[in-house]
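Recall the central idea of this unit: under ordinary conditions, the amino acid sequence of a chain determines the structure it adopts. In this exercise we apply that idea directly, starting from the sequence alone.
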Amino acid sequence: RSNKWTAESIALLEEALSQSPRDYGFQMIGWTSGLLKTLLCQKHDLEISQRSVRNKLHELGYVWKRFRYRLNPDPLRVKKTTHPQCYQRLASKDSGPF
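Accordingly, the structure predicted from this sequence is:
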């Protein structure tokens, strides 16, 4: 099979990776191989497969990591999770097991 990756198409791939998918009008926060395939096929008229994109990314030294959502810690978590009566019992000296 002939290789469809040219120096120009690799430059387009690396240019896309240096920007956010939102810069190209996608609603995603990070790139996936399918999204890169869609971009290269639609915007740059390249006929490549998703597997080909993954292989090229691997050749270029890119690694895939799952997106992880991180939320800021809730400053009111203790108040929300601790029952007020339990909180008072812990403060008193002569409290029993309940």
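The mean pLDDT is 80.
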